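Progress note, sequence design subtask.
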């Protein structure tokens, strides 16, 4: 499983680099600046390295295939993109959100209504054929559909809808108005409805925002409203967003959030304890001290990337004038 996770990570590196390069080229970013920022936000952040590789989660392969499908859509190969995104959804269902957003972007960019309807029908047929073929090749049948409700049996503190349901349930039980299970189920249902509405809104906006941004925001909204949330679920939307909005992810609030999520659940699936936290902080401090004392001379040149990018943009603006 870890080998598949590494293959997925390689796909993420390739996909996010291609998407960021195309996005940065249309907005006057310095050569290489968009790719460098996107790669840090998508791959080199500790949440991705520790959980995608260390935890060997199938999210790595799902996200890698998802980015490859978005690259195919960006290059005009919508049939190939549909097939790849269906493959990503067969790894893990949330990738279907990216197919919806990419399809909406592809259809919305066509000049006339007839061509749009034909494109939508083509994407639907290609997606359906790829789904049936993929299930047939796997040889497991359609029984996996019944397992989609399995994660909902787990309670996690990161799910806002579940937390609200548990609080309301405790109050209702104390007042004799109902059971906690009923309150949790109702709160989760409301959360799922909100999540579906957010996905629909992002897909509707995809022709104007682009498939990467739409997919990232839709998946982030789905995670926030989901009945079960694990720390690495944040990567569903964070990695596509890294291709077009890496500056938002490199700020201090985003970095602190990633560190908190990193230590909430360890790659082994157990919760972090004080010995783990002390060992992690001690090891990180020792590593940073050794880099400062004996690191390579060029290490300090990395933070100057943004200054070089700004200088390049100013020079390009003066040239246009």
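Output:
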């Amino acid at each position: 499983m870890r080998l598949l996770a590494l293959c997925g990570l390689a796909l993420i590196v390739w996909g996010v680099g291609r998407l960021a390069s195309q996005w940065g080229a249309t907005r006057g970013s310095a050569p290489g600046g968009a790719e460098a920022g996107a790669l840090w936000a998508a791959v080199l952040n500790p949440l991705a390295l520790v959980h995608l590789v260390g935890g060997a989660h199938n999210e790595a392969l799902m996200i890698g295939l998802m980015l490859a499908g978005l690259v195919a859509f960006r290059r005009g190969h919508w049939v190939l993109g549909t097939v790849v995104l269906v493959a990503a959804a067969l790894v893990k269902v949330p990738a279907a959100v990216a197919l919806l957003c990419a399809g909406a972007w592809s259809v919305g960019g066509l000049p006339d209504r007839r061509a749009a309807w034909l494109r939508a029908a083509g994407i639907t047929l290609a997606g359906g054929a790829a789904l049936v073929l993929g299930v047939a090749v796997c040889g497991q049948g359609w029984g996996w559909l019944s397992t989609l409700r399995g994660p909902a049996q787990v309670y996690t503190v990161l799910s806002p809808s579940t937390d609200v349901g548990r609080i309301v349930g405790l109050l209702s039980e104390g007042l004799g108005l109902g059971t906690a299970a009923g309150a949790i189920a109702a709160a989760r249902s409301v959360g799922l409805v909100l999540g579906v509405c957010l996905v629909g809104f992002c897909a509707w906006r995809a022709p104007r925002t682009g498939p990467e941004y739409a997919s990232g925001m839709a998946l982030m909204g789905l995670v926030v409203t989901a009945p079960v949330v694990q720390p690495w679920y944040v990567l569903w939307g964070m990695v596509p967003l890294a291709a077009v909005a890496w500056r938002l992810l490199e700020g201090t609030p985003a970095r602190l959030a990633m560190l908190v999520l990193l230590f909430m659940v360890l790659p082994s699936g157990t919760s972090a304890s004080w010995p783990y936290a002390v060992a992690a902080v001690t090891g990180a401090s020792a590593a940073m001290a050794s880099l400062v004392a004996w690191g390579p001379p060029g290490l300090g040149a990395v933070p100057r990337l943004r200054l070089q990018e700004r200088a390049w943009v100013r020079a390009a603006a003066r040239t246009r004038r």
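Confidence is low (pLDDT under 50) at residues 300-309. Work on this subtask will continue into the next period as scheduled.
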